[in-house]
Design goal:
binds adenosine-5'-diphosphate, alpha+beta, flat, two-component regulatory system
Length: about 260
């Protein structure tokens, strides 16, 4: 009896040991495929602006530099491509810091309405280009005090509002609503823009995920904005949701604790 129970113990230990190794191997494989995918995404996103810049330079070298009208056009285009790369690198930097926990969340009490107003001011020009109306669900005339890191929440709102403007139709609107929900506020950013196909909705918070490459090709973006948003909301232990209908519009909503 003693022998058979020893054998059972050994058997159990061996199978536990094997299971741990399997888990280790699986994790290593996952990390490796994540690393490969990440490098693939970054090089893909950098390729377009770099080749564009090279094209503009070659055109200038080819003689266009002597024509003051054409050279300005190509230099401006090259500058746009550089801006695109800067945005990508900045977004990667923010995401990296958030994911490695280097960027701390400094919670304090602040007025979310003031942040909304600042974000609307920031995108005013871009919205005007497409005649998009920036509005509020109703008139909010008193400060709305919430708890969180005001700089990070400003980044959340500016990413959401910027997306709403970017993926909106001409003459559309972007609307912010703030709803009182017992110990929290629900903050909604809605638009009547392109919307998101049902199948893509679950994936849009993933890094580098962009809906339909052909649709996104003309609209600059890194595909990192919503990954950053999700991280910040998670760090606040709050939730974010999206409702969207293709061709009709989207609503992103997140919660924040009321300030005590
Ligand atoms: P991007 O830099 O591509 O805008 P995001 O992470 O901010 O990256 O968004 C991921 C994708 O989700 C976008 O490429 C776009 O396809 C889709 N998306 C985000 N916000 C909206 C919106 N308000 N309306 C329609 N599509 C959106």
């Amino acid at each position: 009896i003693a022998q058979s129970s020893d054998l059972k113990t050994v058997e159990r230990e061996v199978s536990e040991w094997a299971e741990e190794r399997f888990t280790e191997i699986r994790e290593l494989k996952e990390r490796e495929s994540f690393r490969r995918e990440f490098i693939g995404n970054v090089s893909h996103e950098l390729k377009t602006p770099i080749f564009n810049i090279q094209g503009y330079i070659l055109t200038l070298l080819d003689g266009a530099i002597d024509d003051p009208k054409i050279n300005m056009k190509y230099l401006n285009r090259a500058n746009k491509s550089v801006e695109r790369m800067i945005n990508l690198v900045q977004d990667m930097d923010v995401l990296n810091k958030l994911e490695s926990g280097v960027m701390d969340v400094r919670k304090q009490s602040f007025d979310i309405l003031k942040v909304c107003k600042e974000v609307f001011e920031m995108v005013e020009e871009k919205a005007a280009e497409k005649n998009i109306k920036l509005k509020y669900k109703k008139e909010y005339d008193k400060p709305i005090k919430v708890e969180g890191d005001p700089n990070r929440i400003e980044q959340v709102l500016s990413n959401l509002v910027m997306n709403a403007v970017k993926y909106s139709k001409t003459n559309g609107y972007v609307e912010i609503g703030i709803f009182d929900m017992a110990d929290k506020y629900l903050i909604e950013v809605s638009d009547d823009g392109l919307g998101i196909p049902e199948n893509d909705v679950p994936r849009i918070f993933e890094r580098f995920y962009r809906v339909d490459k052909s649709r996104s090709r003309d609209i600059a973006g890194s595909g990192l904005g919503l990954a950053i948003v999700k991280h910040i909301i998670d760090a606040h232990k709050q939730t974010i949701n999206v409702r969207s209908t293709e061709g009709v519009g989207s609503t992103f909503s997140f919660t924040l604790k009321k300030a005590k």
